[in-house]
Amino acid sequence: MTLPSEPETQDEPAQLRFLRRLVTTLTVIMVGGVLVVIALLVIRLSDGKTTPLLPQQISLPDGATARAVTFGPGWIAVVTTDDRILILDGETGDIRQEVTIH
Fold first, then answer.
1. Is 101 in contact with 78 (CB distance < 8 Å)?
2. pTM over 0.70
3. Angstrom distance (rounded) from CA 17 to CA 39
4. DSSP track, 34-91
5. Contact residues for 15 (Cβ-Cβ < 8 A; gap 6+)
6. pLDDT average, residue stretch 35-48
7. Long-range contacts of range 81-90, CB-CB < 8 Å, 24 or more positions apart?
8. In angstroms, rounded to a whole number, what is the distance separating the alpha carbons of residues 22 and 93?
9. In this model, does residue 1 exceed pLDDT 60?
10. Is the pLDDT of residue 74 over 90?
11. By C-alpha distance, which of 66, 63, 58, 65 is closest to 96?
């Protein structure tokens, strides 16, 4: 009987040794890939260019509550809870257009 601290002197088969090395290699590659994806997400999301610039003040008509907001080049679209889409100027915040959803 051998002690657990003493390795057995039997050689492992070549296929088992290959499989053990393959699993170790794939694990290292997978960990590296996850780290690369995380780094790319951090770099992409921390880019200041993707943050939209808001005007100092946006005022909606009386009784209108914003449900959703989206940004375009030079305009802001606000979907209200009373089924309207308000297109606002991106610099001043003034209403350019109003669309009623039927």
1. no
2. no
3. 33
4. HHHHHHHHHHHHT-GGGSPPPPS---PPTT--EEEEEEETTEEEEEETTSEEEEEETT
5. none
6. 88
7. 86/60, 86/61, 88/55, 88/58, 89/55, 90/53, 90/55
8. 60
9. no
10. no
11. 58
